[in-house]
Amino acid sequence: MDKLLIAGGRPLRGTVQISGAKNSAVALVPAAILAESAVTLDNLPELSDVAILTELLVELGATVERNGDVMKIDPSSLKSVPMPNGNIKKLRASYYLMGALLGRFGEAVIGLPGGCNFEPRPIDQHIKGFEALGAHVSNEGGAIHIRAKELRGAKIYLDVVSVGATINIMLAASRAKGVTIIENAAKEPEIIDVATLLNSMGAKIIGVGTETIRIEGVSSLHGCRHSIIPDRIQAGTYMIAAAATRGDVVVDNIIPKHMEAVTAKLQEMGVGIEEMDESVRIIGRPEYQSVDVRALVYPGFATDMQSPMCSLLTQAKGTSILTDYVYSSRFKYIPELVRMGAKIKLEGRSAIIEGSVLQPAKVKATDLRGGAALVVAGLTVPSGGVTEITGVEYIDRGYDHLVTNLSRLGAEIWRE
Ligand SMILES: CC(=O)N[C@H]1[C@@H](OP(=O)(O)OP(=O)(O)OC[C@H]2O[C@@H](n3ccc(=O)[nH]c3=O)[C@H](O)[C@@H]2O)O[C@H](CO)[C@@H](O)[C@@H]1O
Ligand SMILES: C=C(OP(=O)(O)O)C(=O)O
């Protein structure tokens, strides 16, 4: 089993280039199968989730060619293949194959998704959406069976603001007969990215980025070329790592607007920030103030940034309160931070964090962003001793070239 080793205490310095967004890529790759001809995706990140999805597309009969960060997906000889088990269970975003296959073939059999199960993650809103479009949905032994004689547009009000349900309904509805309206839709930038791809394929989607999305179904979609937006969660993690190590880092190839919630919080703590057109410079300071952080849906502070932020808050003077309003118990990483000397108490859906000096320890990542929190903490430990992180396979889901990027910034980090 791989592990990451970090000899901390080195301020990060230099420039890091951010790759395409995982949470876009894992929706765009399945979306491509709705086309009748080849879709080319640029700026594709090199992540295990993307690799598994690619294998799934090949199992479905697509021809996939990857060259660096470019992937060409030709779904012209795609078949409807049931996928109750196997690779499908390895990642969360395999649920996008439900919407995509339903749109393309009117049917899908997909095993319940795996991935980071930091707490129960229901998909009832996805299913409610498919049913509203006229599909019959049943759970047979842990696999979701979806079948529709004909997909018909419908008005769907989401009970919770869900990224996955919003995208999944958009995928299926883009090939439905008539108009679908999604109310209380999620507004994340990745949703806009998926709609941009679908519209380039010939779909008719408006309203993305607002709480009402209108999708006029079309009878067929065609191939196109699309460049994936930068990964705002990777970008935010490097911003936090730069601040935590009192470094000086330019995080490049980003959309600064997508970073506003993180930028504002770092500024409030006293971190130096310079914003450019496609990059942001983070200038670390010797002392930071404690702050309160609330993880919310976009444009609020992202729940995916909550865990790395917790590691930074251990470096602030006084008491910070970090509350997650999206996932009430996304805190499995906290006992590991405590093992590293962090002073954190859990109260309901909040972590109460006192400033502390971290120390090296052997710790285990049990989910992707919890793993990122441990990396930030390991980098922050004053020199002397090595932090050992296992569970690296979780981190591989969302951070490409992590060791290379951090090493280039001057970190002492290696993988064994
Ligand atoms: C691949 C991907 O893009 N993953 C992101 C996506 O996950 P994902 O799309 O799975 O998360 P959702 O936005 O759906 O979840 C938001 C909230 O709604 C609840 N819920 C969701 C769906 C549903 O059918 N029923 C229900 O109750 C969830 O338990 C959670 O409390 O958005 C999350 C919230 O920003 C991020 O943490 C994940 O990184
Ligand atoms: C939770 C995450 O991803 P997923 O929904 O793919 O598990 C994440 O990116 O932090």
UniProtKB/TrEMBL annotation:
<keyword id="KW-0961">Cell wall biogenesis/degradation</keyword>
<comment type="pathway">
    <text>Cell wall biogenesis; peptidoglycan biosynthesis.</text>
</comment>
<keyword id="KW-0133">Cell shape</keyword>
<dbReference type="GO" id="GO:0051301">
    <property type="term" value="P:cell division"/>
</dbReference>
<dbReference type="GO" id="GO:0071555">
    <property type="term" value="P:cell wall organization"/>
</dbReference>
<feature type="binding site">
    <location>
        <position position="304"/>
    </location>
    <ligand>
        <name>UDP-N-acetyl-alpha-D-glucosamine</name>
    </ligand>
</feature>
<dbReference type="InterPro" id="IPR013792">
    <property type="entry name" value="RNA3'P_cycl/enolpyr_Trfase_a/b"/>
</dbReference>
<dbReference type="GO" id="GO:0008760">
    <property type="term" value="F:UDP-N-acetylglucosamine 1-carboxyvinyltransferase activity"/>
</dbReference>
<keyword id="KW-0808">Transferase</keyword>
<keyword id="KW-0573">Peptidoglycan synthesis</keyword>
<keyword id="KW-0963">Cytoplasm</keyword>
<protein>
    <recommendedName>
        <fullName>UDP-N-acetylglucosamine 1-carboxyvinyltransferase</fullName>
        <ecNumber>2.5.1.7</ecNumber>
    </recommendedName>
</protein>
<feature type="binding site">
    <location>
        <begin position="121"/>
        <end position="125"/>
    </location>
    <ligand>
        <name>UDP-N-acetyl-alpha-D-glucosamine</name>
    </ligand>
</feature>
<dbReference type="Pfam" id="PF00275">
    <property type="entry name" value="EPSP_synthase"/>
</dbReference>
<keyword id="KW-0670">Pyruvate</keyword>
<dbReference type="InterPro" id="IPR005750">
    <property type="entry name" value="UDP_GlcNAc_COvinyl_MurA"/>
</dbReference>
<keyword id="KW-0131">Cell cycle</keyword>
<dbReference type="GO" id="GO:0009252">
    <property type="term" value="P:peptidoglycan biosynthetic process"/>
</dbReference>
<feature type="modified residue" description="2-(S-cysteinyl)pyruvic acid O-phosphothioketal">
    <location>
        <position position="116"/>
    </location>
</feature>
<dbReference type="GO" id="GO:0019277">
    <property type="term" value="P:UDP-N-acetylgalactosamine biosynthetic process"/>
</dbReference>
<feature type="domain" description="Enolpyruvate transferase">
    <location>
        <begin position="7"/>
        <end position="405"/>
    </location>
</feature>
<keyword id="KW-0132">Cell division</keyword>
<feature type="binding site">
    <location>
        <position position="326"/>
    </location>
    <ligand>
        <name>UDP-N-acetyl-alpha-D-glucosamine</name>
    </ligand>
</feature>
<comment type="similarity">
    <text>Belongs to the EPSP synthase family. MurA subfamily.</text>
</comment>
<dbReference type="GO" id="GO:0008360">
    <property type="term" value="P:regulation of cell shape"/>
</dbReference>
<dbReference type="InterPro" id="IPR050068">
    <property type="entry name" value="MurA_subfamily"/>
</dbReference>
<dbReference type="InterPro" id="IPR001986">
    <property type="entry name" value="Enolpyruvate_Tfrase_dom"/>
</dbReference>
<feature type="binding site">
    <location>
        <position position="92"/>
    </location>
    <ligand>
        <name>UDP-N-acetyl-alpha-D-glucosamine</name>
    </ligand>
</feature>
<comment type="function">
    <text>Cell wall formation. Adds enolpyruvyl to UDP-N-acetylglucosamine.</text>
</comment>
<feature type="active site" description="Proton donor">
    <location>
        <position position="116"/>
    </location>
</feature>
<feature type="binding site">
    <location>
        <begin position="22"/>
        <end position="23"/>
    </location>
    <ligand>
        <name>phosphoenolpyruvate</name>
    </ligand>
</feature>
<dbReference type="GO" id="GO:0005737">
    <property type="term" value="C:cytoplasm"/>
</dbReference>
<dbReference type="InterPro" id="IPR036968">
    <property type="entry name" value="Enolpyruvate_Tfrase_sf"/>
</dbReference>
